Amino acid sequence: MKVDTTTPSSLGRLPFYYGWVVMGVAGLAIFCSGPGQTFTVSVFVDPIINDLGWSRTTVSGLYTAGSLTAALLMVLIGRLLDRYGARVMLGFVVVLFSIAIACMSLINHPVHLYLGFAGIRTLGQGSLTLIPTTLVAIWFIRLRGRATALTTLGMGASTAAFPPLVHWLISDFGWRDAWIVLSILVCALLLLPSLLLVRRSPESVGLLPDGARRPESVWTGPSDPTRLPEVSWQLNEAIRTRAFWLLLIAMSSPSIVSTALMFHHISLMDSRGVDAGMAAAVLSVIAPSVLVGSLVAGFLADMIPNRYILAAGQVFLGLALVLALTVDHTWQAFLYGAVLGTGGGATMTTSAVVWANYFGRGHLGAIRGASQVGMVAAAAMGPLPFSLLLDIAGSYNSAFFLILILPAISATAALLALPPTKPTPTL
């Protein structure tokens, strides 16, 4: 890891570990990813359709195309993160993300919407998830799971705050002005903390991960209770392992299913007799459930093999699909949201932790950037099949039955994803 020579050495003399400050900024960054996340975009979908007269399939297809474009760019984001560090990358991303959000207020043509979706998905959903969680994984090893869980509280807070805020902004000011407000909010909240408080790594300020006082063998994950020295894999080594691809499969189901459910949330709830205002409230119920799932998974990730937690998250996801099929009262909608949020929080935290636990910190940006290609691409494919089947069959039921098998596939892949062993070079 490169040393950030501009960092004052006095940070090492603070009475607390500076990694907790970094973790706080990382959590704020994840919170500010909200305008690029599906739970926020979903509130804009119906107003955009009603105002511009486009079909739901058209908007879903453009969202898919924009998200696929974002997926392809995540490899570049990961490599730039390894090269320039999180402080530079976060500042750069915040500025571009704010501009992209503001540009969403100007769309009048399908090409504009595609470009807007590509921008907010690359910079928000992709970069402002990848960079903060990678940063925390670099600053923590022994406490990585719980530090990541605390960081992802930002996602729970974002899920709670943005949907009702956007619903109110659209109702009072219109969907175009709502995007402008979100752009100003993100820049005001995140730009200065990113530039002033973030540092590349503990080593760059003369510290050790977790606030350790001396170099020693470090813990590399629940699969390695003997505290062997940390091993760092390069990207070209990681992608040759069976574990890398099994983890991608294990994480594809949450990306596909959760994105589809969030993107069509308002319409789905309306088809079940739940009005738009109450549907937005259901999204707020998802938030504390995400917090619970994240915290539990984070603490467990420091104690048990991560693949078990990933598999358990799939069980919750499958149950959420079953509940969504049976919603016909408001309380059932809230139960559905709670189960979906718990599973999503568990998989989100574990997904952020497992890559560092399996492949080390040395080239984590590149490895996670490559993994994000698959995860963001999977997320991109979620909304479109729902729209197509809704147009063809007139209901969401066919789509639910079609994707119900995905959590089972992902759970199986998770259980098979044993930690890789790096071959010892021969002399």
Can you walk through the features of this model?
The chain has 427 residues and is mainly alpha-helical. It has one domain: MFS general substrate transporter like domains (Growth Hormone, Chain: A, Up-down Bundle), CATH 1.20.1250.20. The chain is 74% helix and 0% strand. It has helices at residues 19-32, 38-52, 56-84, 86-103, 110-139, 144-151, 153-173, 175-197, 235-238, 242-263, 265-271, 276-301, 306-326, 330-359, 364-381, 383-393, 397-403, 406-416. Helix 1 (19-32) runs parallel beside helix 6 and helix 10 (242-263) runs parallel beside helix 13. The radius of gyration is 21 Å and the shape is globular.
Tally of DSSP helical segments: 18
Give the strand tally: 0
Unreliable segments (pLDDT under 50, ≥5 consecutive)?
Answer: 3-8, 216-228
Global shape: globular
Structural class: mainly alpha
Write the CATH architecture name: Up-down Bundle
Rg of Cα set: 21 Å
| Alpha-carbon distance between the two ends | 26 Å
CATH homologous superfamily classification: MFS general substrate transporter like domains
Q: Work out the strand percent.
A: under 5%
CATH class: Mainly Alpha
Mean pLDDT: 85
* Count of distinct structural domains: 1
Major sheet: size, sense and barrel closure?
none
CATH fold annotation: Growth Hormone, Chain: A
* H/E element sequence: HHHHHHHHHHHHHHHHHH
Instruction: Please bin the fraction of helical residues.
Output: over 70%
